[in-house]
Design brief:
The protein is α+β, with helices and mostly antiparallel strands. The strands form 8 sheets. A 6-stranded mixed β-sheet has the order 14-13-15-19-18-16, with helices on both faces. Strands 17, 20, 22, 23, 24 and 26 form a 6-stranded mixed β-sheet that branches. The protein has a 3-stranded antiparallel β-sheet with strand order 6-4-7, with no helix packed on it.
Length: about 400
């Protein structure tokens, strides 16, 4: 993992809007807000995936609900099934021995072998007669029906051929994946790292530590990280700086005190702890977010207002967590087309997130504007629509991309 220095333009491929220092940091981001693509570019350059980890298959089941992502493609080590086997319960026979058999013409089966589904085919047998097609007469077994070659048999490699790519890197493992891996004898899998994310709660007048702590812990876990929750801490520059610079984390996320008021000391503390690269983003809500480094690792400062915090996490901090974990850095919310009930108004020059819900007829309507604080709108919403910075909004009846909050396409 690498981290860009404050003021380094290598992270964005061009000159940063400004290079903040402890003496000029307050408010500078708001006179020249960085665009969302610039912020994303800084994250992509500063954050690289951590080394993958090898995990025993037996240990993966317990963590599957948290999301486990493959770090390398998985290939079948051999054919599946590895040999011809019975696809159903019955009697394994040579199909040629059953020619002409019927209920009025039982045919003796001198070499019949009773098998259960999944058992290997005996030598010389190439078909399975179901139990209803046989009868016994003392020690003899007779066929009451004929079987074609291969009937009732699962051939070697019919399910998979050796060398087949089962899943590509980045695939999120599912219960059925683990079942197949176990059947193939794969007992260890290389998966994405679980980055250690220090979440510092700096607080603020419109947020409570229990709100931000609970929300950010769940979001980081969703994106593959492990949270070290610190705080709430007072609005003290030295205290926050020490928490930011403490060793052991792969990523720092701080929530609160990111504005331009007298007690908004988080950007100053970040500058002290390592470096402040960007402060202020053309994003609503969430415009006071900041990026930089602390103790040699990337850092993301999030606003203390809960909805602004959620927005800035989803679009900035979550991207960093997912990159560290070896996941797709893009938004994890399924995208589906939707049609607006009424106009979604937006300001040129600023990316805006509109919380929306679906109506009974499948259209979408806003629940709350980007200017309205609080999480109630997000809780009542089915998802959100992002209006890009070069747009004044979309009219009623327009087709938009709905990002679904619940992880499904509704």
């Amino acid at each position: 993992m690498t981290a860009a220095r404050a003021g380094d333009d290598s992270a964005t491929g061009g000159r940063l809007p400004f290079a903040a220092t402890p003496s000029d940091v307050r408010g500078r981001g708001f006179s020249s807000r960085a665009s969302l693509p610039v912020m994303e570019g800084w994250i992509d350059a500063a954050v690289t995936p951590l080394p993958p980890r090898a995990v025993a298959l037996a240990d993966l089941a317990a963590t599957l609900a948290e999301g486990v992502v493959l770090a390398a493609p998985l290939t079948a080590p051999g054919d599946w099934p590895p040999a011809d086997r019975a696809a159903r319960d019955g009697v394994a026979v040579a199909s040629s021995d059953t020619l002409g058999a019927g209920s009025y013409n039982p045919v003796p089966l001198p070499d019949a072998v009773t098998v259960a589904a999944g058992e290997p085919m005996p030598p010389g047998a190439d078909a399975i007669l179901p139990v209803e097609c046989i009868q016994t007469d003392g020690p003899f077994v007779e066929a009451l029906g004929s079987a074609a070659p291969g009937e009732g048999v699962e051939r070697q490699g019919e399910g998979l051929r050796g060398g087949t790519v089962l899943r590509v890197a980045g695939h999120r493992l599912r219960p059925q994946d683990l079942g197949l891996l176990a059947a193939l004898g794969i007992d260890t899998v290389r998966v994405g790292a679980r980055p250690w994310v220090r979440v510092v709660l700096a607080g603020g007048p419109r947020s409570g530590p229990e709100t931000l702590g609970a929300m950010l812990t769940a979001l980081v876990a969703r994106d593959g990280g492990v949270v070290e929750l610190v705080g709430p801490l007072p609005a003290d520059r030295a205290v926050l700086s020490a928490a930011y610079a403490a060793p052991g984390a792969d990523l720092l996320i701080s929530a609160g005190r990111t504005g331009v008021g007298d007690d908004d000391v988080a950007p100053l503390a970040l500058a002290d702890a390592g470096g402040l690269a960007l402060h202020g983003v053309a994003l609503r809500p969430g415009d006071s977010a900041a990026l930089g480094t602390a103790g040699g690792v990337p850092a993301v400062l999030l606003p203390g207002e809960p909805m602004a915090c959620l927005t800035a996490y989803e679009l900035l901090a979550g991207r960093a967590v997912r990159r560290l974990a070896g996941r797709d850095p893009a938004l994890p919310h399924p995208a589906v087309p939707a049609v607006t009930v009424r106009k979604l108004v937006s300001e040129i020059g600023c990316t805006e997130l509109h919380r929306v819900r679906r109506t009974a007829d499948g259209l979408v309507e806003p629940v709350a504007s980007p200017h309205r604080p609080g999480l109630a709108g997000a809780v009542l919403a089915d998802g959100f629509v992002l209006i890009p910075a070069d747009s004044e909004g979309v009219p009623a009846g327009a087709t938009v991309t709905l990002r679904c909050f619940d992880g499904t396409s509704l």
